[in-house]
Write a structure and sequence with these properties.
The complex is a heterotrimer of chains A (565), B (132) and C (431). Chain A has 565 residues and is of the alpha/beta class. In chain A, 34% of the residues lie in helices and 21% in strands. The longest helix of chain A is centred in the C-terminal third of the chain and has 18 residues. In chain B, 29% of the residues lie in helices and 31% in strands. Classes of the chains: A alpha/beta (565), B alpha/beta (132), C alpha/beta (431). At the A-C interface, helix 1, helix 2, strand 7, strand 8 and helix 4 of A face helix 3, helix 4, strand 8, helix 5 and helix 12 of C.
Chain lengths: 565, 132, 431
């Protein structure tokens, strides 16, 4: 099939294109130089913005804890339903949409690629089952390694190469994409109902510290040449004063950076960007974090922006979720996973008139506005932790309009204005920068070479938004911006129009990416010999039954990487 | 005939689990499921020995099963029928808004029924439907 | 002769995955490691099998072709205004997914056996939440295991051996390192293995748990005994619960089926939540069928709700007590039923069975069962985990893949394949 998008204002930051009027030609799912207009379906995009399809690098859309959230919260679903059509399935969900609904809602916003950032390896078949049931989108998942017993044992003995071989085996076994670290050591301590307070605390019984885990896994990541850096949810998340831990985490591997390439992605930094010493003195730590990021090339981050709404928090950070339950008194799910990790779920309502929540809201935006290089800060709500992904158009409008930020600031408690820096920030994102923080930059940091740009050979994943950048001033007309980004005029996936003005018109399956590192055979054999014994001791399933066959993925897309091993 | 007021509970047993895998129409299934486990002291009270037939009656119906000495005693005043069609002839259909009928803790009465037959699965279902 | 290792057992929610099955000339001739019930299933799966589809004519079931049985099924389901699609716990997730799609297509209600099993537990989780874990956490860390209202020695026969009391973990070296407590109304087979057995009166669990919560908060219980248990004994139990390093409660239908139902579970979940302020404590329901957990999970991710999902409005609705199958049958509202891998006539109260007898029923099952006695259509299916592959969820949420060990008889398809054909035909008929 051939497609021609004519006369759009094209924003393609990876190729330096900033709102130029041009045509985009598509053939067989890829972007090509040109197509014969008489043979192609033509979309008239004059007066519209053309961008690569959105790429979300951190959104909890699938797997055991997401589903635990769905099960926990029928009240989340009652008032928000999708009715079956001749081509789409029905579904529900405000903050934790059912799988089909998740695919449709992302596609309507012009998103075509979404990564699930936390899966317990033991339950990753579940994650893939749900990813299979999320239509349209290309997907992947990040297995959790920061509290894995076998990892901790290897790293304690400084056997980094064998640890790398083990992680290569794991990514292949569970079809995972990158190394995720959540509250390193702290979730293992939570197995005993305890916690970790600093990067140099010992993990009970394992004689290793979070610092050593992060450094070890960062080295592993480099040895394996994985497409994405280590993806880190810091210790002390959700605690006043935690911005220090966040900076320490970024800094603890700074000596491992060898070139300009980022080697750590720190996620949902809003939740780990708190100043003050307790809730009463909570303040923004965003300026300090931004200062560090601006001075160091080895770090990227994403926001975890909060939205004033009812949502559902869910993380592998079991001890944090328990604290949140104690704080809110809301219902609480905890789910610990043998030898690997944990998880928790707690419903949450962020209120504009709550001083703590208002500070949190400001911190996310400050991070986006104070980090100078948009290629190193990405827009997320850590869906659904900060708020549902369907709020992205709102976040875009906040980034683009000082006016709307000030309107909201005028309504939050005075103390929240004083304890944050947001009111003093004038910066407003351009469409070009929005394209970076929502697709170009995220695709790049994920190592997706064919995504996030519109160059020749790229996947024809394209979003067209009904907004004329020459006529609309996002600073003033933020409502128009919001409306345009809510329902893309067209969403194109692999060269096919799958949504038009908010209506889903085609429902293809998406791919599931996973990393397949190639490691020296003798190293793999040595590692496997040890693994067989450890596995028998540590797990309640057999090694054979842990391995996920490729046929379990509806559209498997391995990424071969050559390890430096 | 002596009658005794008891509390009925239903549940799984090894025999019920095995019987169901042999097939619902197998003798093994009936042997293991059309039974009522009774505490020894209660057997004495109604004057029967293990293996004789008893009639179990609740507000919701009655059924004849084989009375046997419980392996899970002592539990005087409690009788146990493995989950299955015989138990379900006498359990409470009310769900109290939960979707779940009451399958445990049902007030019941037992009495010896030496003359009465324990129905097979087919006859039991047919009888249920006839009563409807 | 061939020996297949690491087979996952398709009987109970333990989903033991260490079974060794010997196959000779396409037949299972030997089974190792399985419990008595699992063994029976593997060795006798072929007994009393029904090899032919059947439809009812003039009150009698007659053998027919597969296509005719599917056609009759399609006719019944397309003519129905409010069909129920029930069962699902003894089949694969793949089949369950087609079931949800089928229910959506015909605008019916899909409900699984948890409705009459741990449905109240799920309703309680929706009120309170739950603190839980995978089995390995118990194996490595638990120094206290409580079995409440369940009898695993009879119903989950390898549970104590593989996952709790006697298994060897990193921090616990076996039975001697753990305290086992049983709370039950009978001195059950499991109680006989316990260090402490608390025998309570039937229908008194809520009161007993409430007293226990008071004791844990050091509040005075102004009674001599609760649920037939002396207060001193309740206080002693509270001390045991508080005193452990890592404790877990496994609970069964003793809590969900007796008076109080979901409220009993509310209390138990709250007890565990309270205990987390003193020590590490978790709780897990003992799920019966090998894939009842999967039925809840598939239903939740596809529809938002774990069971009792009503599609009659074109989108999923959930309200147990209203959209649950027993209530619908008690009210006599449904006008057709598709029963997959279940036997409601053997397990439902009589009032519900009578409604089933009054409407056209389709049964898809490997065996003839009590429900097939009154069915309009009977379609035999392959045993998943023996004659077909499929994904299942262990009771602690760990997904596993059931193996296909032997070929089914000629013309016998998996539940998934049968349902897929029905769905395709229904769509074809509707254009």
């Amino acid at each position: 099939m051939k497609l021609l998008i004519r006369n759009g204002f094209v924003f393609d930051p990876q190729n330096g294109i900033d709102g130029e009027k041009m045509d985009i030609a598509i053939q067989d799912g890829r972007i090509v130089e040109s197509v014969n207009p008489s043979e192609a379906v033509t979309i008239d995009a004059s007066n519209m913005i053309v961008m690569p399809g959105g790429v979300d690098l951190h959104s909890h859309i699938a797997g055991a804890k997401v589903n635990a959230g769905r099960l926990l919260r029928p009240e989340d679903h009652y008032k928000d339903v999708e009715i079956k059509t001749s081509i789409t399935r029905s579904g529900v969900g405000h903050s934790i949409p059912s799988t089909f609904t998740t695919g449709y809602r992302y596609a309507r916003m012009g998103y075509t690629t979404v990564f699930e950032p936390a899966t317990a390896p033991l339950k990753t078949l579940h994650t893939h089952e749900e990813l299979n049931d999320i239509p349209i989108l290309d997907k992947a998942c990040f297995p959790l390694f920061g509290n894995n017993w076998i990892v901790m044992e290897y790293l304690k003995e400084n056997r980094v190469e064998e640890c790398a071989a083990y992680i290569a085996w794991m990514l292949n076994a569970v079809k995972g994409y990158a190394i995720k670290i959540v509250n390193p050591g702290g979730v293992e301590a939570w197995g005993w109902g305890k916690g970790i307070k600093s990067l140099d605390d010992q993990v009970p019984y394992f004689e290793i510290t979070p610092r050593e885990i992060i450094r070890g896994l960062c080295k592993v990541n480099k040895l394996l040449n994985l497409p994405h850096p280590i993806h880190v949810h810091c210790n002390n998340l959700g605690k006043p004063g935690n911005y220090r831990t966040t900076i320490e985490t970024m800094d603890c591997i700074s000596d491992l950076a060898t070139d300009d390439k980022p080697i750590i992605h720190v996620t949902h930094v809003q939740f780990t960007g708190y100043g003050g010493v307790d809730w009463a003195s909570l303040a923004s730590g965003a300026d300090k974090i931004a200062k560090y990021v601006n001075a160091h090339r080895h770090v990227t981050l994403d926001l975890g922006q909060i939205i004033f709404t009812d949502t559902t928090t869910m993380t592998a950070d079991g001890p944090f979720q328990y604290q949140l339950y104690l704080l809110t008194g809301n219902k609480w799910i905890n789910s610990d996973v043998e030898a690997e990790t944990g998880a928790g779920v707690v419903p949450m309502r962020y209120r504009r008139n709550n001083y703590v929540h208002a500070v949190m809201w400001a911190i996310g935006l400050e991070l986006a506005l104070l980090v100078k290089d948009p290629w190193r800060v990405f827009m997320t709500t850590d869906h659904p932790n900060g708020g549902p992904f369907t709020a992205y158009p709102r976040v875009i409008s906040w980034l683009m309009s000082r006016e709307v930020r000030r309107k909201i600031l005028a309504k939050v408690p005075r103390l929240a204005r004083v304890r944050t820096n947001l009111s003093a920030i004038d910066r407003e994102y351009t469409f070009y920068e929005i394209a970076i923080v929502t697709r170009a930059g995220t695709a790049k940091i994920l190592g997706l070479k064919n995504k996030g740009h519109l160059g020749i050979g790229a996947d024809a994943d394209i979003a067209i938004y009904n907004i004329n950048p020459n006529e609309v001033d996002p600073s003033k007309d933020y409502k128009k911006v919001r409306r345009a980004f809510r329902n893309a005029a067209y969403t194109i996936k692999d060269g096919e129009i799958i949504a038009k003005d908010g209506e889903i018109i085609k429902v293809p399956n998406g791919r599931t990416y996973w990393s397949k590192p190639e490691v020296r055979a003798d190293l793999m054999d040595a590692m496997k010999a040890i693994l067989v014994k450890k596995f028998e001791d540590y797990y309640t399933v057999k090694l054979e039954n842990y391995y996920i066959p490729e046929r379990c993925l509806v559209q498997s897309n391995p990424i071969n990487v050559k390890a430096s091993l | 005939m002596p009658k005794l007021k008891v509390v009925l509970i239903t549940g799984r047993s090894i025999g019920q689990g095995q019987g169901k895998e042999y097939g619902k129409f197998s003798e093994k299934y009936k042997e293991n499921v059309a039974v009522c486990e009774i505490d020894s002291s209660d057997l004495t009270k109604i004057g029967i020995t293990s293996g004789q037939h008893v009639k179990v009656t609740t507000y919701h119906g009655s059924v004849v099963v084989k009375g046997v000495k419980s392996t899970q005693e002592p539990h005087p005043g409690i009788i146990f029928i493995p989950c299955g069609p015989w138990a379900n002839a006498v359990i409470c259909p009310k769900t109290h808004g939960t979707g779940m009928p009451s399958l445990k803790g049902i007030p019941a009465e037992i009495e010896p029924a030496p003359e009465e037959k324990v129905l097979g699965l087919r006859e039991l279902v047919t009888q249920t439907l006839r009563e409807g | 002769m061939e020996v297949i290792q690491n087979v996952v057992c398709p009987f109970c929610g333990c989903c033991c995955d260490d079974i060794e099955v010997t196959i000779d000339s396409g037949k299972i001739t030997g089974v190792k490691n399985a419990c008595a019930i699992g063994m029976t299933k593997f060795l006798h799966y072929g007994d009393e099998r029904n090899s032919s589809p059947m439809v009812r004519k003039n009150g009698e079931l007659f053998k027919t072709t597969f296509d005719m049985a599917v056609e009759k099924t399609v006719e019944i389901l397309t003519n129905a205004k409010y069909p129920i699609l029930y069962g699902w716990s003894s089949t694969s997730c793949e089949a369950q997914k087609v079931g949800v799609e089928l229910a959506e297509e015909v605008g019916g209600v899909i409900d699984n056996t948890s409705s009459v099993c741990h449905g109240p537990s799920i309703e309680a989780v929706q009120d309170i939440g739950e603190s839980t874990c995978t089995f390995g956490e118990v194996k490595h860390r638990a120094d206290l295991v409580v079995y409440w209202g369940c009898n695993p020695v009879q119903a989950h026969m390898r549970h104590l051996l593989r996952y709790s009391a006697s298994c060897v973990g990193k921090f616990r070296k076996g039975r001697a390192d753990r305290i086992i407590v049983v709370v039950d109304v009978r001195n059950s087979s499991t109680a006989k293995l316990a260090d402490h057995f608390i025998q309570i009166e039937p229908n008194q669990d809520y009161e007993f748990i409430s007293a226990l919560r008071m004791a844990i908060r050091m509040e005075e219980i102004e009674q001599d005994s609760v649920a037939g248990v002396p207060v001193e004994k309740i206080e002693e139990l509270a001390d045991i619960l508080i005193g452990c390093q890592f404790g877990i409660i496994f609970f069964g239908l003793g809590l969900t089926m007796s008076a109080g139902k979901n409220r009993n579970i509310d209390a138990a979940l709250s007890l565990v939540r309270d205990l987390n302020s003193r020590t590490k404590f978790l709780i897990m329901p003992m799920r019966g069928h090998f894939n009842v957990t999967g039925a809840n999970k598939v239903s939740a991710w596809q529809t938002g709700y774990p069971f009792a999902v009503d599609f009659s409005q074109g989108y999923p609705r959930y309200n147990p007590g209203d959209t649950s199958v027993i209530d619908i049958l008690n009210r006599g509202e449904c006008d057709a039923a598709l029963i997959v891998a279940s036997d409601p006539v053997a397990h439902f109260p009589q009032q519900a069975v009578k409604t089933l007898a009054s409407i056209p029923v389709i049964v898809i099952d490997p065996h003839l069962n009590a429900t097939s006695l009154l069915a309009e259509v009977v379609i035999p299916s392959a045993f998943v985990g023996i004659e077909a592959e499929g994904i299942v969820y262990r009771m602690d949420g760990v997904p596993l893949i059931l193996k296909k060990l032997v070929e089914p008889s000629n013309g016998i398809h998996s539940d998934e394949a049968i349902l897929r054909m029905i769905l395709t035909q229904i769509r074809k008929r509707r254009g």
